[in-house]
Design a protein that fits this description.
Elements: H1 6-19, E1 41-45, E2 48-51, E3 56-59, H2 74-86, H3 95-107, E4 113-117, H4 120-135, E5 139-143, H5 161-164, H6 175-178, E6 181-184, H7 189-198, E7 203-208, H8 224-234, E8 238-242, H9 254-259, E9 265-268, E10 279-283, H10 285-288, H11 307-322, H12 325-346, E11 353-357, E12 360-364, H13 373-378, H14 381-393, E13 396-397, E14 406-407, H15 414-433
Parallel strand pairs: 3-13, 5-6, 5-7, 7-8, 8-9
Antiparallel strand pairs: 1-2, 2-3, 4-10, 9-10, 11-12, 12-14
Helix pairs in contact: 2-11, 3-11, 12-15, 14-15
Bound molecules: pyridoxal-5'-phosphate.
Amino acid sequence: MNVMDHNIHSKLFSRAEKVMPGGVNSPVRSFAGMGRTPVFINRAEGSFLFGADGEKYVDYIGSWGPMIFGHAWPPVAEAVKKQLEKSTSIGLATDKEVEFAELLVSMVPGIEKIRLVNSGTEACMTAIRITRGITGKQKIIKFNGCYHGHADPFLVNAGSGALTLGNPSSSGVPHETVKDTLVADFNDLESVSQLFEKNPEKIAAVIVEPVAGNMGCIPPENGFLKGLREITKKHSAFLIFDEVMTGFRLAAGGAQQLYDVEADLVTFGKIIGGGFPVGVIAGKTQWMDYLAPLGPIYQAGTLSGNPVAITAGITVLKELKENPAIYHSLEQKGKQLKTGLDEVFKNTEIPVQINQVGSMISLFFAEEKVETFKDVQKADMEIFAAFFHRMLENGIHLPPSGYESWFLATTITDELIEFTIEAAIKSVKDLFIQKEHYV
Ligand code: PLP
């Protein structure tokens, strides 16, 4: 892997800063949490990113989840090229949408109908609206450090970029909007029960990332998701699984299938668009039919079900459906990386905890197991930043935040995992030499 020319990147950043706030179009891309300016990427292929100076990195971001088959996957490229000749947007009902919806319904447990939107944010926002519209109740419960997009009701103790940049609750969000957002602790059923007890008959829904990925990867403890199912049933509240990240990444039927728990509504994004902007709200007919034009809950979108985007999505979903062995192979790769990294840190003074579920993995510089948001807060983010810098110099592009999950693609080979572990060994040596100047 060749080393970048910092000059090219800093020139791009000066231009970017003049025309875009912080030089970026989504906060965590700014690298501000890592104390440096961003690396600009020119193209990507398989598990490689190529920087503006032509330098090459192994990619563990995967566009923040969508690229399960790696970048520029030829079947998507081919299918999209053909679709481009037919139309890029129609704005009317299409045969493609029917194909996409049938495919999704055939793969995900417990769902009968879907509504296509353009992002995970829209999907989660609409899911909440459905539950409020049906129940007539206003309050929702979300979890500390979980992220459900940037719609107003979710910007309370939010994860991802909001957490990385230290603004987990955004300004500009009316107090009236967030006063109905209650916050519980992930992996703590007691905290959920208490909120239901304090707010009887007022809570419409609990929304959760079944495997948290926006405060780093945190698996649900045994019984947590089933417990949420029981509590929500008991209080006649909806359970929403936000599978924007976990959907089709952990299993062809998502986390519902992996943990054998059925939610009432499920949201998807990322992978289902094959690299294009797509979101979905899915559930049983009895709930989904509350949406306009059948029901009183309004939701609409000019580009919803965009034929190019869902052509890409159909191509990816079909491959995942026909080839479930992919998940076993991704799990093996995840384990291999975890084991290798555990080994790198084992004999150092640097305490590390690595959480991994399938192809989601996070490394925390922490003394004790990381199972809750409180544990995440104890992790040393300065060392993470230092490690991130060294890894980048050694050709590995990790997410520029210690609060994000890394994603593995099917294009990550044994050799690339070896290369990553070698890079980690070099990076750790360097950390020791310069221990007093971590960043
Ligand atoms: N939900 C989860 C779990 C996510 O990880 C994200 C984005 O990272 C979203 C919702 C929002 O999706 P989008 O960025 O497509 O709006």
